[in-house]
Amino acid sequence: MTKTASSVWKECLSFIQDNIKPQAYKTWFEPIKPIKLSGEALTIQVPSKFFYEWLEEHYIKLLRVALLKQLGEDAKLIYDVRMENNYSSNNPHTVKFPSSNRNPIVPQGVTVPMDLNKRELKNPFIIPGIQKVKIESQLNPNYNFESFVEGDSNRLARSAGMAVANKPGGTSFNPLLIYGGVGLGKTHIAHAIGVEIKDKYPDKTVLYISSEKFTQQYIDSVKGNTRIDFIHFYQMIDVLIIDDVQFLSGKTGTQDVFFHIFNHLHQNGKQVILTSDKAPVDMQDIEQRLLSRFKWGLSAELQAPDYETRVLILQNKLYRDGVEMPEEIVEYIAKHIKSNVRELEGVLISMIAQASFNRKEFTLVLAKQIVDKFVKNTKREVSIEYIQKIVSNYFELDVATLQSKTRKRHIVQARQLAMYFAKRMTKASLASIGSQIGKRDHATVLHACKTVDNLTETDKQFKKYVEDITKKLTF
Ligand SMILES: Nc1ncnc2c1ncn2[C@@H]1O[C@H](COP(=O)(O)OP(=O)(O)OP(=O)(O)O)[C@@H](O)[C@H]1O
């Protein structure tokens, strides 16, 4: 019987299968396609350069023996490396057997302990060329679910995070996008999911990275000609957590590479968790195809915590720090610091520092001094509720009328102004503004903002409304 590429490879495979573990066989040999037999030279197609490097690193002896058995002393193996995605030239390049190994590069900023011989590695994450490498997840163990106080403002995001942590890649929350204003706990939840996954599934490779660092790594990989290694590195992760994706705005190269990494991970049932300061619908300068991926899973908003949750957050922090503080002071702080949990914690830390430096008691006077400083130092953010009240008063309406479905022109205008000021003076998303001002959708809010901008330029009377209300809102 004449030998063909398929028949030779089939025999090789049966030998290989007998000599390695089934999982390794499935991963590294099943995807290979025999494509040509020319004399004693067999050409096999491998899915990527990484794949080829892995074979060379780990299975070259086995391949050599298998081939020699089939094709004799002069056997040659030629790899046809099918480069992935758009990252290759159109011509697959061919590598002659035997060839030297190359070390793929771990992106900068990811901690990779190199002195591994002395370490006990339970689950080494192996990269060819670097003997045994464990990827550090970059997770902060203090940011866990236990230390994250639940409230109405974060219930959806928290429960979705828990669901993802229980079954990474196995829920419809993929990607899970957590969005919300500054200091509301996005990073905390993102870490908590990772920490919980590591706890439940120690074998999974979890990586937390900020978009900024991701972008920098990508730029470095382009400069250093290691773009493929960069992509492969990320494609091998089981749970990828990227913080502050709004930072990718306008960075088309990084968006493009992330799009391909995302697709690969998603197709392979890997979990992606993203955070952003905006809902996908409000993100600007992010490619449509990427935005549409963000919407595949679940987008969960973190809102500013209500008073009760703020009190609980403060109590929780005090408890963890082993500090006792009179209830009225905790309540005072919670009453005055409303829109940012980081600030809430900041006041507490200042209080504790001041009191211990000066050996003072916690007093309301001290609390007031510190709260005043915080409030002064941060640009005051008015609430959407307050904006509606001021706008309604100005037009002598009540808030219910402003929120109603009526299409009467002067009420529509008042409603549009309220939406406009909410967009300008708060960090709320269009969707969140719409839902708070008469249960409208984000498109209505966007339209309102444009209308107000246009009318301010063309209508003197309308311009005066805007100026008057601005004064009232900013005192
Ligand atoms: N529900 C909560 N329970 C306990 N701590 C919280 C909660 N929400 C936020 N925090 C704490 O508030 C601080 C700010 O949270 P975090 O850094 O996660 O906010 P963020 O939304 O990522 O902010 P940024 O927009 O600046 O990136 C952290 O110390 C975090 O632990």
Descriptive notes:
By secondary structure, this protein is an alpha/beta fold. The chain folds into four domains: 5-96, 2-Layer Sandwich (GMP Synthetase, Chain A, domain 3); 152-302, P-loop containing nucleotide triphosphate hydrolases (Rossmann fold, 3-Layer(aba) Sandwich); 307-377, Helicase, Ruva Protein, domain 3 (Orthogonal Bundle); 384-474, DnaA protein, C-terminal DNA-binding domain (Chromosomal Replication Initiator Protein Dnaa, Chain: A). The protein is 51% helix and 12% strand. The protein has 20 helices and eleven strands. The chain has helices spanning 5-19, 22-28, 49-58, 60-71, 155-166, 186-200, 211-223, 227-235, 252-267, 288-294, 307-321, 327-336, 341-357, 364-377, 384-394, 399-403, 409-425, 430-436, 442-458, 460-474, and strands at 33-38, 41-46, 76-81, 93-96, 125-127, 130-133, 176-180, 206-210, 239-243, 271-276, 298-302. The strands form three sheets. It has a five-stranded parallel beta sheet, with helices on both faces. It has a four-stranded mixed beta sheet with strand order 1-2-3-4. A two-stranded antiparallel ribbon has the order 5-6. Helix 13 crosses helix 14 and helix 17 (409-425) packs across helix 19 (442-458). The structure holds adenosine-5'-triphosphate. Adenosine-5'-triphosphate binds next to helix 6 and helix 13. Belongs to the DnaA family. Residues 1-94 are annotated as: Domain I, interacts with DnaA modulators.
